[in-house]
Amino acid sequence: MLDLICGLQTFMNSIEGSGIDYIHNLSRDMFLNVGVAYKNSNRFWEKVESCKAVNLKDKKAERFCAENVHRDIDIAAHFGTTTPAADQYLLHFAPGWDKNRNSIPVVLIHGAGLDATSFTDLYSMGFQGMQQQLVELGYRVFAVTFSHPHGDNYYQAEQLADALARIREITKARQVDIVAHSKGGLATRLYLAGKSSNSYQGDIRRYIMLGVPNMGLDYPFRNPLQNYLVFTSGSNGVMAWDQILSMGTMVKTVDRAIYSDGCFPGQAQMLYRWDDEYPLDLLQQDWWTTYFGGSGFVSHSRGINTAIKDGDSMITQMDNWGIDPDVEISILAGNNSKFNSFPGESSGPSDGVVFVASAHHSDGLQKSGAKLRDKKILKVNHMELLFARKVVRWLDAQLRD
């Protein structure tokens, strides 16, 4: 064990000493957003509206840290700041939003650490995104950018409800189809379950989920070394560690941690323990203290139970709430756990972040009689769900009448 500890510390020191370019390239290969400013995202949209959700105007502002402010230059300009107020959101209009042949609007809802640009040019990596592919197929596409990339899911449900009302107002459509990626699917579920101030208006025809953790996840606690990579690279990701050993000194990382006094308010709400289903990796550094809490050799964690409590056990609560029986559901999970050549979540079948079993968990969704159209697995990772052509082919089949 001592050899393992010393070896990991040597590896950590080598990462820290190897230069920021190497760290950023490694993070890029793993689809981690390292906070590089994105320029000219406006070119993907016909227009962008800056909006305010009325029911959030008196809500407490959500905290940001340097790593999770908005870095897309055009998005920040539309907000008027890199740290928008809780009631702000953006509504993006894709080319053909008012004239493409498929008249039912399709609304894209982004996941954690992302924004509407993730559906067009993810991390400026040059992939043709889901938005462009859907536009080419004749869909009238919109997207929402939430005020906080890791925002409270209840706040985001309010922003979504407001956006849907705006879309129906300008298109005269009675219903829309929602395509939600990852965390964005939880805000959508809260709205569909009537848990926002805006009661569900019957305005969603089909709800299509891409890698949504319907039964939660425990990724930051299950994968201790990922915390170190997020910290070292400056990525827009959350950590289970509130202290970390860096260059021989324990450094406080509370702002970047998943707990209630951190700057990632919606992350704790996504947590659920999967250690009974998929055993933890006992060879990972600080595996016990990371998951259950305490001081390890290179870190300190408050433990997953504390974080779940901070998130008000939202996943457990949500599984008891059905959604409107008239809504048609389609669920897609990925089972490629690698990001390029780097391993992601590998304790069980997953897309590298979300277990297939979590994404496919539909008992709560159907509790009130909502109809399940399709439940599919494709060989893609969590981020490929945003641009892979086979994903869009499946999506097209779910959207077509």
SSE series: HHEHEEHEHEHEHHEEHEEHHEEEHEH
Task: Give the CATH class of the largest domain.
Answer: Alpha Beta
Low-confidence parts, pLDDT < 50 over ≥5 residues? Answer: 1-7
Major β-sheet annotation: 8 strands, mixed
Query: Which topology of the largest domain does CATH recognise?
Result: Rossmann fold
Q: CATH H level of the largest domain: which superfamily?
A: Alpha/Beta hydrolase fold, catalytic domain
Helix content: 25-40%
CATH architecture of the largest domain: 3-Layer(aba) Sandwich
Structural class: alpha/beta
Tell me the number of structural domains.
2
Query: Which word captures the global form?
Result: globular
Question: What is the chains' assembly state?
Answer: single chain
Task: Determine Rg (CA atoms, Å).
Answer: 20 Å
Q: Estimate the strand proportion.
A: 15-25%
Q: Count of DSSP E strands? A: 14
**Spatial separation of the terminal alpha carbons:** 59 Å
Determine the mean pLDDT: 92
Major β-sheet strand ordering: 1-2-4-3-5-6-11-14
Number of helical stretches of at least 4 residues? 13
